[in-house]
Write a structure and sequence with these properties.
With 387 residues, this protein is an all-alpha fold. It is built from 19 helices and three strands.
Length: 387
């Protein structure tokens, strides 16, 4: 309420200034009516009836080069308050005035486009932002708004086209986002069983951003589906160099590949090298599972104990208790089960992924943050006790 009253004061002032400029020696009935409306609007303000005051001032003060800023401010305030219909009406009224300068009209178009977006009228907003780009006014801002529209509509090809235009005219790199758009198209192609086209799109994604983890994972998935385990392994291993924090996403598929070609020893060597270079709970757990399979439960437990001494972790402790339960009987086994259940509950309350931009937490992987709408900012969460 107070924000609105404060913003209406310039409207009242503009109205008074407008009246003062009148030649009082040539007063006409219309001038007296205008003065009456002016004081009527002030009275509404003083009585804290801003909605009525707004209506009076908007109708009274003609939109021209000297009052357009006040009208734009009113429209923006309405949009922030969620009164989008009023904001649209004000901005449309501004645009309809033939006396505006080119820059003032462009600003009004830009504000009206944002009104339409707030109202969910994406097609109208798109038309206005395209018009601004063609006019060469608010070009970058309009391009960013178009990207937001195309992302909402999942029109990834249009998003790519606009992002590439933005990349040519901006010093800020957008290749990382373009790569994500290509990955989205690749996902659509995979859903339609078009492996060949998906592969082409993923190559373009990596050409836009050679660090695109998602593209490498998808390439590996395609190769695995096609039975080419050697090619899949090569793609999955790229993730270590692109983003080691995402290795947990490919360890399972890598194990499948190595099993299919009968080279679990190579998989074990890879896990050891990853553990040596990056640490991480996932590679440690994967190695312990492999040791249990090819050697013994005791070998797996001993390996986890050695790792926990260097890097304490709740999930590592959880796995160790699991192994000990299998070799324990009686009351001691019951006690271990109690501890095991407590740790499971502790782990079950925490998210597996978190956005580095806004802090959004999730149980599953998202390449596009549902909260802040940033790309490639959600990453796997490390064990809370892991050093």
């Amino acid at each position: 309420m107070y924000e609105l009253l404060f913003l209406l004061l310039p409207v009242a002032a503009a109205s008074g200034w407008f009246l003062a400029r009148r030649d009082f020696s040539r007063r006409k009935p219309a001038s007296r009516d205008l003065s009456k409306h002016y004081f009527e609007g002030l009275n509404f303000l003083l009585n804290e009836e801003p909605d009525k005051a707004i209506e009076v001032f908007i109708e009274m003060v003609e939109v021209d080069g000297e009052t357009v800023e006040t009208h734009l401010a009113l429209g923006n305030l309405f949009r922030r308050r969620g009164e989008v219909d009023r904001a649209i009406r004000i901005h449309q009224n501004i645009i309809a005035r033939p006396t505006l300068s080119r820059s003032q009209r462009a600003l009004a178009l830009y504000e009206l486009g944002q009104d339409y977006m707030s109202a969910g009228l994406l097609d109208r907003a798109e038309n206005l932002f395209v018009e601004l780009i063609e006019l060469g006014e608010y070009r970058k801002q309009a391009q960013h708004m178009l990207l937001e529209i195309y992302e909402q509509e999942k029109d990834w090809q249009k998003a790519i086209d606009v992002a590439q235009q933005l990349q040519r005219s901006s010093s800020k790199p957008v290749g990382e986002v373009i790569a994500q758009y290509f990955c989205e198209l690749a996902e659509q192609a995979l859903a339609n069983q078009d492996m060949r086209h998906a592969g082409q799109l993923l190559k373009r994604a990596l050409a836009s951003d050679h660090q695109c983890v998602r593209a490498s994972i998808l390439q590996g998935d395609i190769a695995l589906q096609e039975g080419d385990c050697s090619r899949a392994i090569k793609s999955f291993k790229q993730v270590e160099h692109q983003g080691p924090e995402y290795l947990m996403e490919v360890l399972g598929p890598l194990e499948t590949c190595y099993r299919n070609i009968g080279k679990l020893d190579d998989y074990a060597e890879f896990l050891d090298s990853v553990q040596a270079r990056h640490g991480g709970i996932e590679s440690m757990l994967a190695k312990s599972s492999l040791l249990k399979e090819v050697e013994s439960n005791q070998a797996a437990a001993s390996y986890i104990i050695s790792q926990l001494r260097e890097r304490p972790s709740v999930r590592g402790l959880d796995r160790l208790i699991e192994y000990h339960i299998e070799n324990t009987e009686g009351a001691a086994r019951d006690d271990l089960y109690i501890l095991y259940d407590l740790i499971k509950k502790l782990l079950g309350t925490r998210a597996s992924y978190k956005c580095s931009s806004c802090g959004f937490e999730a149980k599953s992987m998202h390449w596009h943050c549902p909260s802040c709408k940033c790309w490639n900012t959600i990453k796997p969460v490390q064990d809370p006790v892991e050093s």
